[in-house]
Amino acid sequence: MVRTALRVILSAEEGLEVVGEAATGAEAVSVVREVEPDVVLMDVRMPEVDGIRATEHLLATMPRPPRILVVTTFENDAYVYDALRAGAAGFLLKRAAAEELVAAVRVVARGDSLLYPAAVRGLAERYGRPGVPAASAPWVARLTDREADVLRLVARGLTNAEVAGRLGVGPATVKTHVASVLAKTGARDRTQAVIAAYEAGFVTPG
Known about the structure:
- The chain has a 4-stranded parallel beta sheet.
- The mean pLDDT is 85.
- The protein is globular and about 45 Å long.
- Helix 2 runs parallel beside helix 3 (51-61), helix 3 packs parallel to helix 4 and helix 7 (145-155) packs across helix 9.
- The chain has helices at residues 2-11, 25-35, 51-61, 77-86, 98-109, 117-127, 145-155, 160-167, 171-185, 190-199, and strands at residues 39-43, 67-72, 90-93, 114-115.
- Helix 4 links the parallel strand 2 (67-72) and strand 3 (90-93).
- By secondary structure, the protein is an alpha/beta fold.
- Helix content is 53%, strand content 8%.
């Protein structure tokens, strides 16, 4: 029923096409390999192989892996952490409104990350390390002031466009700063940079 609802919502949107469906994690891996979609909506809990493991496998073994948006009914920040650790580009609850779902797919498709705000707060509360000095991570000292501002805003779940609006710069400038942040943190994408920021104590709750 959930897959049907998602298909109906997304198929009705101009520029979006649903090219495959899967009922289990193992089937999801097979379908993604066959159709090579741009974006995958990956359920966290599935038979045979869960969504986190399926995400890890696809990102580790495909030459050009898709952008993966993890969806779940469970407001459990442990899932958020595992999804981001696995390399997911975003996290969204199934109860999100239709327009939020469509926006999430578009955001992830264009290369941005999408972090459900409540999940970001949960991630910070559980996995942030306020007792660890940010300077203990060597990459922190290599960030410029503007790169540091960008990383803090990205860690709050803001898209490039939202970061640009907040800082009063152009989206292209933000994209350049994000690329530099990824290089300095050794992260492969924005979500990996967020994890690095929390674990280094660079971003803390509050």
